Amino acid sequence: MLLHVNTAIAYTPPLPDYSVPQAFDLDAYRENAAEALHALKNELAGRPEFSEVPFESRVEEGFLHHAIRRIAEEEGVDLVVMGTKGATGAVEFFLGSNTEKVIRTAPCAVLAVPESAREFQLQKVLVPTTLRPEQLRVFEHLAQWQSFSPFSVTVLYLNDPLGLGSSDAIEAKAHAMTAEARLRDCTVLIGGNTFNEELAILEVAREQSADIIAMGTHQRQGLSHLLFGSLTEDMANHSDIPVLSIPLKLKR
User: Fold this and answer.
1) Which CATH number applies to 2-114?
2) Fewest CB atoms within 10 Å of the CB: 21, 102, 141, 175?
3) Model pTM?
4) Model pLDDT for residues 24-50, shown as the tens digit of each residue
5) Which residues pair with 112 in a beta bridge?
6) Taking the domain 124-247, which CATH number applies?
C-alpha cells in the first residue's frame, strides 16, 4: 500500500470565520495527490522486479503517525516502510521526527530508511540487545524474515545489563535465545562498557558492513519517554543504514 498523508489539514484552524486560503485548495490537493500516487503505482507495477507485487494507493488527512497507526490497525499491516531525514538539536528533543512518532505508536514493525542509505541488500543484520526475556520477540520476528530471505545475524551485547559476567555465559544466553526463536546463522559480539551506546552500535554496524540494524522498542510515551528516551528512535534518527524497530509488545 502506497500511502500519502496530507498533514496540512491537521493544522487548518477549525473556525467558521476563517477559510482556507485559495493558495491551498484542499479538493485540488486531494485530486493531485491521488493522481500522483496512481502514477507511481503504475510505474512500480511496470517494473520486472515488482511483477508479482499487488499495489494499491491511498490518500489520507491528519497527523502522519495517527493516520499510519489507524490504517495499520484497520488493514492488519505487517510492516511500515518510510524514509527519514532524521531530526537534531532542539527539534529532536522537543518534537522528534515523524519517524520517531511512527516507531513509538505503530502496532507493527517499522523500517526507517535514511535519505543517505546505499543500495539495499539484505545479507547482514545487526541486533543490539539486552538479552532480557522480552527481546525474544525481536529474534522471533527476524526468524520469520529469514524464511523469506536468508541473511546472517550478529547479536551485539553491550554493558552487560544482565550482569552475566563472563563471555561464556553471555554467549550461552544469546545462543539459547536465538535457538528458541529458530533464528539461524548467528554470531555473538560482546562489546565493553560504553557511555554512548548509540555511537558504539553505529561503529559496529560500519565494521560489520551491516545492511540493517534491528532493535526492539518499548514504545514509551509521555513522561516515561521524556525521562528514559528511546535508543531505537535515536538510532532511526541518526543511522545511515535502515533501522528496523520491532515493538516488544507486538502480537504474535
Assistant:
1) 3.40.50.620
2) 21
3) 0.85
4) 567 787 788 888 888 999 999 999 999
5) 82, 243
6) 3.40.50.620
